C-alpha cells in the first residue's frame, strides 16, 4: 500500500564522505565534486520520500561560502522542505570537518527540485506533514520559490525576446551601459 503522507522528520537523512585526492582542484575540493554529492543526497532523500525513482529537475542557487580541503569529512544533512504534486524541494546543508582539529564549518546550503517518475512520467508524491513552525515556514518558502521560478522564467523570456529584436548597434550600446535594469532590460 502506498503511503500518502509523511512527516518532515521522517525525511531527514545524512550522507558522509571523506574528500579524496581525486576531488582535488588547486589544493581545494573541486566545486563540481561537491555538486555531485549534493545531487546524490537530493536523489536519496527524494526517492525515499516518494517511494519511486526521482530525477533532478533543477538546482537553485548554491553559494560556496567556504572552501573544503582534501581530507575533510563532508556531511550532507538533507530533508524534504516542500512537496508539490510530483515534485519536491530537497534542502541540503553541507558541513566540512577537519579530522585533526575537529573544527566543523557550514560550507553550503543547497535546494534541489526533484521529480518522482513512474513508467517515465511524473508521478504523485506523498503529502508532506509539517510538524512545527520552522517546517511550515520552510514549506511556504519552497512553495513561493516554485511560483517565483515560473514567473521569473516568463519575465526573463520576454526580456530576451526584446533584446533579440534590437539592432547590433543597440546591443553594443547596451553592453556598455552600467545597468540594464535602468533601461528596462533586466
Ligand atoms: C523533470 C521532468 C521529469 C519534468 O517533466 P515535465 O514533462 O516538464 O513535467 P511536468 O510539466 O508535468 O512537471 C512535473 C513537475 O515537475 C516540476 N518541474 C518541471 N520542470 C521543472 C524545473 N525545470 N524546475 C523545477 N521544477 C520543475 C513541475 O513544477 C511539476 O511539479 P508539480 O507536479 O509538483 O506541480 C523532465 O523535464 C525531465 O525528465 N528532465 C530531465 C531530468 C534529468 O534527466 N535529470 C538529470 C539531469 S543530468
Quickly give the structural class: alpha+beta
As for the number of domains, it is 2
Instruction: State the helical fraction.
Output: 25-40%
CATH class assignment of the largest domain: Alpha Beta
The average pLDDT value, as a whole number, equals: 93
Strand content: 25-35%
CA radius of gyration is 20 Å
Helix count, DSSP H or I runs of 4 or more residues: 3
List segments where confidence is low: pLDDT < 50 over at least 5 consecutive residues. none
CATH homology group of the largest domain: Hotdog Thioesterase
What is the rounded distance between the termini? 49 Å
CATH architecture of the largest domain: Roll
Order of helices and strands: EEEEHEEEEEEHH
Q: What kind of sheet is the major sheet?
A: 6 strands, antiparallel
> Which cofactor or ligand species appear?
coenzyme A
Number of DSSP strand runs: 10
The CATH topology of the largest domain: Thiol Ester Dehydrase, Chain A
Q: What general outline do the C-alpha atoms trace? A: globular
